[in-house]
Write a structure and sequence with these properties.
Layout lengths: L3 E4 L5 H10 L1 E4 L8 H8 L4 E4 L7 H5 L6 E4 L9 H6 L3 E3 L6 H16 L2 H10 L20 E5 L3 H11 L4 E5 L6 H7 L1 E3 L2 H7 L2 E4 L13 H5 L6 E4 L8 H9 L5 E4 L18 E3 L8 H19 L14
Parallel strand pairs: 1-2, 1-3, 3-4, 4-5, 6-7, 6-9, 7-8, 9-10, 10-11, 11-12
Helix pairs in contact: 5-7
The structure holds (2R)-2,3-dihydroxypropanoic acid.
Length: about 325
């Protein structure tokens, strides 16, 4: 008897085929997101699940899945999973680090530039046939990216990939991280560690790139935004909840900062309604890793994790290491 597994979203056909060779697979063919009770019902007889960040794997779901041995997240972030609850039940939780760093750094830069150069507003104007701002001297103009100061909060692999891109724009890079990165990397990235308040005060662009945990909930709120330059732009491609959306909406409405580029939001897929009317916010639907090549690598990594866990081997990327 093959172990039973659930794949909660539609994945690539070659991935499903590979899985079917080893497992009895239930696959979300029509890609309709499942509500928590439906997810719980479908997990009732499964030993493994390939999940995404939109699947909340909490106590209630785990209680309905007595045979579950592994939650293989197709993501690097695992804040959708109650890890202590999984560990208590001996369920391994795995993730896909490393394979999405450059793709997420690319999107971060895309949002930074889109907000700086008002790309979304320009796109809307062209579609309306509105060219009156094209050669205006005082219209709401953009902000230079080149030679500006970029502040990165969270200098892990993705933070460093963002800093690397900044060197091509001759930017000055400040960073804040719990620990300093090795001196050779600071030199390579032309990056200087500073206290967070100094970073907020001196940066033209502030990028947050920390993994979500309760300790960083609302790391950027009204008090932090108040320390930023009125001309600054905030970019969040990390996780919803790291930025206080209500505080940011208010600051953007009052033009306390100039703009924002946001890929992640509190309570996704819901959105603070205030964002919708803000021309100075560029919004994308959590697409940091959404390129074909990267999503394929994420799926392959997640399959390797799941297969190892169900075959009694050490998964390459185990999050609850107590279960190694
Ligand atoms: C991740 O990997 O955590 C991303 O946010 C999901 O694409």
């Amino acid at each position: 008897m093959k172990p039973k597994i659930l794949v909660t979203r539609q994945v690539f056909p070659e991935i499903v085929e590979a899985l079917r060779g080893r497992f009895d697979v239930e696959h979300n063919d029509d890609d309709r997101p499942w509500a928590p009770d439906e997810l719980a019902r479908r997990l009732a007889d499964k030993q493994g699940v390939l999940a995404t960040v939109m699947d909340r794997i909490d106590e209630a779901v785990l209680a309905a899945a007595p045979a579950l041995k592994v939650v293989s997240n197709i993501a690097v972030g695992t804040n959708n999973v109650d890890i202590p609850a999984c560990t208590k039940r001996g369920i391994r939780v795995t993730n896909t680090p490393g394979v999405l760093d450059d793709t997420t750094a690319d999107l971060t830069f895309a949002l930074l530039m889109a907000a700086a150069r008002r790309i979304a507003e320009g796109d809307a104007q062209v579609r309306r046939g509105d060219w009156k701002l094209a050669f205006a001297m005082q219209s709401p103009l953009g902000t230079d990216v080149h030679h500006a100061t970029l502040g990165i909060i969270g200098m892990g692999r993705i933070g460093q990939a963002i800093a690397k891109r900044a060197t091509g724009f001759d930017m000055r890079v400040l960073y804040n991280n719990r620990g300093r990165i090795p001196e050779a990397d600071e030199r390579r990235l032309n990056a200087t560690w500073v206290e967070r308040d100094r970073l907020l005060a001196e940066s033209d662009f502030v990028v947050v790139m920390v993994p979500y945990s309760p300790a960083v909930h609302h790391l950027i709120g009204a008090a932090e935004i108040a320390k930023m330059k009125p001309t600054a732009i905030l970019v969040n491609t990390a996780r919803g909840g790291v930025v206080d959306d209500a505080a940011l909406v208010e600051a953007l409405q009052a033009r306390r900062i100039a703009g924002a580029g946001l890929d992640v939001f509190e309570g996704e897929p819901k959105l603070h309604a205030g964002y919708l009317a803000l021309p100075n916010a560029v919004l994308t639907p959590h697409i940091g890793s959404a390129t074909r090549a990267t999503r394929m690598r994420m799926c392959e990594t997640a399959v390797a994790n799941l297969t190892a866990a169900l075959e009694g081997r050490a998964p390459p990327h185990l999050v609850n290491r107590e279960l190694a």
